[in-house]
Write a structure and sequence with these properties.
Chains A, B: Residues 185-330 form the PurM-like C-terminal domain. The structure is a homodimer of 358-residue chains. Chain A is α+β, with helices and mostly antiparallel strands. Chain A has 9 helices and 14 strands.
Chain lengths: 358, 358
């Protein structure tokens, strides 16, 4: 696969990876794993009908369950990132933080992780050890315990060194109810810091590009930051970590699920100069680039300033800022006000600009 | 990879897949995923030190956890079986039943599953749909809900069509405490039915072999059978589903963890004629062939007859029988009394006779 073809072909999301909707596809394309429209169609048209069930239909980052009288968050992610090690992290860090953050977006502090490895015959055991050690260290940093695991091996040429799956469970605190359906016009949209960093960090090593300064992934566990925010008020409306598909996908999912319109002030969206430069070179829009240590929060207006102040006291929220608001107009749609006073529609991406980013 | 080389080379487990211990290996071999000695070494030498934590050290099929005042079982498995569809089941059935059964071995009825797909670019969407539908049907049959999912796509040539990971959670009933450490001399060893069926079913399609009759996988969810057994008494000592590594691996793990000796009467171990014939042709020992719908139970002697009677009333236990007992002699070792009055040691397999059986 030539990834540079995808990257430089077009700024138009419709041209990425695969333009045709699922109904016109007969085979899996890279975009089905991209967290955009094709991923959503796969869930809607293939998985949801096959599994049935009301829980999957919640369409959040984590399922919210009742079991034995307690409220649990439960989530899973597989990780197929290339390369396995990159500036600021590794597949082991992603495997912990990706799932821990999905739980945190329900307000749950991750308690236990499962961890399944699919190893390719011939990969060095030293590589496996480095991944496992990174995973263990990330788990300790996030305060989550790896409780159970599994390892499978596939023949050389049928994998890619190391794939990792994690699933996680955690308790949802009383009084916390984070769902896109709670979003209402007037809510304030806050982002916890600079966007686009993880995706650009991966690309810089994958394509051997140099952007003057090394860009390190922002990969981090967001449980502590979320606790800080919930200490201000449990009445946040929704949290989302903008991973695959970037901030654009996260905002679109919330707009669609809540039936409200979202307006972003493009100038307020924090994009570091190094990320902006790299995106210009690569033909990417930072709004669509994956993050792994950021969150976007939809907060009732009366709590917004206090939540923002609290976020800025946390090491992962020092650059938090208000980037927009929820409106009654254009329900289900995300619109950006540009620096020049115009507006543009921020679409849900079709596929993924950068395959195998996590 | 030539699998027939592994299969016909030797009946000696030490010759399978890879004879050298982990400490002498520098690269991953197929046997690291086989559920035998190499798998155990990988956990002991790589994963356990990296993760730390007391829960993983329990070394059961599922972790037993306390969360919010309730006792949970939590387990994960990845599935890389080839082919995806086989007589009696599919990777979708295995993905449900494998995890459901791991939970059942803790006495827990599975409540929720997570499900992560790693798809290979180019695989037919119709194939993905068939797997998802099989998975959904198996979940409904097992009474478990698919609560959360994830899909990643890797480039053509970096996967094998469809890999599936599931993780599951369920409540452990009050009074149930199933652990190998509870096994004591005098305990009776019960197997729920014929062994070796799943592995031979996979081999028959993979190698295009004909054994006169089609052998169908025994793939099934064991939660109902376990409930039937626990209704007799919650005081069972340990349950184990003998998947990778077969009955031999399950018995060895329990002997090692309990520090007791296990004696099996070889004539009592139920091996269907078709499985025995296939194993003779392939040079396999049925004791080492994977099962996917059977369990082995270590039961206090005073409850053994009642538990056996109850098992036989359940569709998945009609052929249940006592195959041996726990002794004070040869702690940590499994010995089979042969039909000719002799004895042989039943070793833990080193790797796996049949790679990618689940």
């Amino acid at each position: 696969m030539s990834e540079t073809t995808d990257l430089t072909a077009s700024l138009d999301p419709a041209a990425w990876t695969c333009p045709a909707p699922l109904s016109e596809q007969s085979r899996v394309v890279m975009g089905h794993g991209g967290g955009g429209m094709l991923s959503a169609e796969l869930v809607r048209d293939v998985f949801a009908p096959a599994y049935g069930g009301a829980v999957l239909a919640q369409a959040g980052d984590a399922a919210q369950l009742a079991l034995g009288g307690v409220r649990l968050a439960f989530s899973t992610d597989s990780f197929v990132v290339r390369p396995l090690f990159f500036p600021g992290g590794s597949i082991g860090d992603l495997a912990v933080n990706g799932t821990v953050n999905d739980l945190a977006m329900s307000g749950a502090r991750a308690a236990y992780l499962s961890c399944g490895f699919i190893l390719e015959e011939g990969v060095g055991l030293e590589t496996v050890s480095r991944v496992a050690e990174a995973l263990g260290a990330a788990a300790r940093a996030a305060g989550v315990e790896v409780a159970t695991g599994d390892t499978k091996v596939v023949e050389a040429g049928h994998g890619d060194g190391v794939y990792v799956n994690t699933a996680g469970i955690g308790l949802i605190p009383a009084g916390v109810d984070l769902r896109p359906q709670r979003v209402v016009p007037g809510d304030v949209v806050i982002v916890s810091g600079a966007i686009g960093v993880h995706g650009v960090a991966i690309m810089s090593v994958r394509e051997g590009l140099e952007f003057g300064v090394e860009i390190e992934s922002d990969c981090a566990a967001l449980g502590g930051l979320v606790d800080t925010m919930l200490a201000v008020t449990p009445d946040l409306h929704v949290l989302r970590d903008p991973t695959r598909g970037g901030l654009a996908a996260a905002l679109n999912e919330i707009a669609a699920a809540s039936g409200t319109g979202v307006v972003i002030r493009e100038r307020e969206v924090p994009v570091p100069p190094a990320v902006a430069n790299a995106c210009a070179v690569l033909g990417l829009d930072p709004m669509y680039v994956a993050n792994e240590g950021k969150l976007v929060a939809f907060v009732p207006r009366e709590h917004a300033d206090a939540v923002l102040d609290a976020m800025r006291t946390h090491p992962l929220g020092t650059e938090a800022r208000i980037i927009g608001e929820v409106v009654e107009d254009h329900p289900g749609m995300v619109v950006a006000r540009t620096g020049l006073g115009g507006t543009r529609v921020v679409d849900l991406p079709v596929g993924e600009q950068l395959p195998r980013i996590c």
